[in-house]
Request: fold
Amino acid sequence: MSIQSTEGSLPASGSGGVTYTTVDVTYFEARGLKRYAGVASLWALGVGAVISGHFSGWNLGLSTGGWGGLFVASVIIAIMYLGLTLSIAEMSAALPHTGAAYSFARTAMGPWGGFITGLCENVEYVVTPAVVVFFIGSYLGSIFGTPPEFQPVYWVFGYIVFVGLNVVGVELSFKVTLVVTLLALACLVAFWVSAIPNVDFTRWALNIGADGTELPEGGGPFLPFGVYGILASLPFAVWLFLAIEQLPLAAEESIDPKRDLPRGIILGIGTLIVSAFMILWLNSSVANGAFALGKSGEPLLDGFRAIYGDGLAKVLALVAVIGLIASFHTIIYAQGRQIYSLSRAGYFPRWMSITHGTRKTPHLAMLVGAVVALVLMLAIWFSVGAEQGALVIGGTLLNMAVFGAMLSYVMQALSFILLRKNAPHIERPYKSPFGVLGAALTVIIAVVTLFFQLSDPVYRAGVIGVAIWFALGIVYFALKGRHKLVLSPEEEFALSKGTSEYKSH
Reply:
């Protein structure tokens, strides 16, 4: 590996067959970011990214595991995310770079490990907002009574508006994130308060029989599909927490990342655990119950309908769309920073990392991610038809996002273990109380979830989609990208093994 840089040099160290190209100070000036975020903004970024999963998506696990199966699966996945987020909190404070997962793996596993981890997250952050905007369209279609053929209009309009808001500036982006996250949580709390007097857990949450049929009077088994149902529900339980790990992508836009990132992550996962189990219990325990919710595209709207009837429910559901918007807006933010960081370091084409001249936001990275997601959605929709397209986008793309996320979790947890072992000298302003055990549990649970996805034919289409994504990315990096790397902050830190502060470009 040869290293050249007019920004200063580090000792060459052969690794991964990569080459660093010469850049000057204008390269990083054209890729500048602004610092703005404090603890509240970071908390909102993490919670906002996930909160849509408490409005739609999680409920599909009711049809695969029944209420009990999904509950146990959610406990297992919550343990995985605790181990993951506390590991990430330690690594993000020690390596406060925009690259986040790619940065952790780059330091622990070299350039190929960093790139593969970056590809895993790239699948997640490009596909997840596509699934979220699909659910937004589903809600809006139910509220306004538009035909299924109108759905793509909602998707295109959503991307135009929220990519635009993210481009305007980091201050506005975080202010919008905080407002919509608080509104989304307020909507969930309003549902909890409304549902508690109407709860009939035994009748509604346990209304699925062992043969998968509906039990009108309830009283069904806690685990109607046994242990298999728990395993089948793991990918859907992930939807209750998916994307909390994006928070470290704000490292270079955080005022004090070494202090604030761990605080934001811990507050975020605590909030999500409480909300996840409240919605799982209450949404399933009102009229229609688990059997109907297992097939619903808008479970919270169905819950409001059960309590208030169709009229008021539509008004409340319009407010509930804010929850989906919160995730859509914040994951577009993450998508832009994730593509930006890989591009700035040369793993992706470098032009993608150029930031807006005055607003200092990665507008090209966000635009590329949005276009790829929209093309994917529209290609599916118009090639297989509206009805089948809805199933593919709401199911197959969701599984692609979960599969990419699970792979990235394995890589990040392994990075944590390797950094603890091989780089104990790195300053760690925060240390995970779960340590290596927490990271090991993350790996085990993520691998079990991956194994189930690979063994179940329902999920294979999504897995195949991720495999194609990986193949294209790896071919590009092997033939071109690995010869065009740049000494970005992530790369300098990795090459110095954390023994000196990376230069501020």
Summary: Residues 101-144 form the longest helix (44 residues). The chain has one domain: 25-455+465-496.
